[in-house]
Amino acid sequence: MKVLGIIPARYASTRFPGKPLVQIHGKSMIQRVYEQSSKAAGLSEVIVATDDERIAEEVKGFGGNFIITGHHHQSGTDRCAEVAAALPDFDAVVNIQGDEPYIDPKQIELLISCFEDPEVQLATLIKKIQTEEELFNVNIPKVLLDNRQQAIYFSRQTLPYIRGAERESWMEQFQFYKHIGIYAYTYRALQAITKLPPSPLELAESLEQLRWIEHGYRIQTRITTIETVAIDTPEDLNKINVQL
Predict the structure, then answer these.
(1) Torsional class of 63: left (φ above 0), alpha (ψ -120 to 50), beta (otherwise)
(2) Mind listing the pLDDT tens digit for each residue in 49-78?
(3) In 14, 50, 107, 117, which residue has its Cα 20 to 30 A from 71's Cα atom?
């Protein structure tokens, strides 16, 4: 299988404008994401998808590949679809978060392994929830699975509800999972899901993957033990320094 890694990168972030160009220990964030992603054995090629010439010049400067996309995209998935449409020779696409400068290549390889099953069209990673803080944090999407590790539902709320038990004991009653936001799609599935209209569940939870489920798509998951730091705000750069 020929797999393309795409890193969506836009300049106009509300909470952190110019985020892909911020310097982290001598390299821009986008360069670090690109170099880490390129180490993944299952990727045939890595491309930065951006709508900004400044980011394109940065990628060009360190010898990376990029494609200029439109400004109209509402999500990284949409930006990936535009790039993939121009490169139909690839069988699948991995949507790599552009704000994780130390993403582990093993995460990408684990995600790609989902396509060993020829029926898989969409895939993502999940991780066991280890603390009550994670369990009840509405900013961390939770995932419900069926017996094939396919996602049934995603929610910002804590699901399932454990009836008859105090919240403090919920983690003893059930294995909860959180979503790790990296996706992979077959070429055909990617083009199809970006043409779907927004769905009621997606609008309610503000989680785009619910649109896919609500329209009948199945999302295969793999359990990872790895979680790297995402940089959403300037303050998050301190997390990198602490981690190093």
Answers:
(1) left
(2) 999 999 999 999 999 999 999 777 778 899
(3) 107
